[in-house]
Amino acid sequence: QLQLAESGGGLAQPGGSLRLSCVASGFTLDYYSIGWFRQAPGKEREGVSCITIGGITTDYADSVKGRITLSRDNARNTVYLQMSGLKPEGTAVYYCAANPRNWCSSDASLYNQWGQGTQVTVSS
Q: Which pLDDT does position 107 carry in this prediction?
């Protein structure tokens, strides 16, 4: 069984930065592409970014392009989402998810394992 747990969310000022972590337990992340998704109240879940097994990243949300750095540390079984230039519209629950393929997609249905989510609130 692969379990994912997000952390690092919280309250941030507009223009500030946060680093979210996604830690796997019970399994290794070496053979999974990892996607980050977010869901705001009353909105559909949307893809934010994804990193392949080989470390290739893709940003899906135009609103975060250039403000996100996704990286993985397989030795720590962890994927990081570094966010900067945070905006109030970035307020959402952020999820990481594992994709048992060697390529990325913004289609949430392709991801088999999900974390519980971590709340990010961007406000003054």
A: 95
